Amino acid sequence: MTRQRRLVYDVLLRDLDHPTASEVFLRAKDQLAGISLATVYNCLETLTEAGLVKQVNLDREPSRYCPNLNEHAHFFCMGCGAVEDVAPASRDGGLQGWCIPSGSRVEKMEVAMRGLCRRCAAGEEHSVETAASGASAPDRSAN
């Protein structure tokens, strides 16, 4: 893995906050001043194609990147903009409770939930960085 790809991957693993490419760039350039936004985009594309990260899209917002390779949903806070992983309640990867058409096979599932995080729901002022504080780090191993 190239130095730039390793740095971009490390940025994703460090905070686990589903950053956009621009946010990854800002964090990466603190450690490697010569890195460009184009390089970050290329690294993210390569990491996604290699199956090391997932690209997360919500409506018309910029893509975000997630290193959690387990099946999970995403909770988007409409108050502060935080994004958190939500593990499925069942062992079947979250398919229980869904009426999958007979004979079909699910290859990939993407679920996005929108609402208010605990702090926004309580009316607390906070930054996005603290929205997910206290959340356990997801298991990054592939199933």
In a nutshell, what does this entry contain?
It is built from five helices and five strands; from the N terminus they run αααβββββαα. It has helices at residues 3-15, 21-29, 37-49, 118-121, 128-131; strands at 54-56, 64-66, 73-77, 83-86, 112-115.
Account of the 3D structure:
The protein has 143 residues and is of the alpha+beta class. Helices cover 30% and strands 13% of the residues. Helix 1 crosses helix 3. The chain is flat.
Question: How do the strands and helices of this protein lay out in sequence?
Answer:
Layout: H1 3-15, H2 21-29, H3 37-49, E1 54-56, E2 64-66, E3 73-77, E4 83-86, E5 112-115, H4 118-121, H5 128-131
Parallel strand pairs: 3-5
Antiparallel strand pairs: 1-2, 3-4
Helix pairs in contact: 1-2, 1-3, 2-3
Structural class, from helix and strand content?
alpha+beta
Mean pLDDT: 85
CATH class of the largest domain: Alpha Beta
Work out the count of structural domains: 2
The fold-level CATH name of the largest domain is: Dna Ligase, domain 1
Could you name the ranges where pLDDT drops below 50 across 5 or more consecutive residues? 130-143
Content of β-strand: 5-15%
Q: Give the biggest beta sheet.
A: 3 strands, mixed
Rg of Cα set:
16 Å
Percent in helix: 25-40%
Number of strands: 5
User: If strands are numbered along the chain, what order do they take across the biggest sheet?
Assistant: 4-3-5
Specify the overall morphology: flat
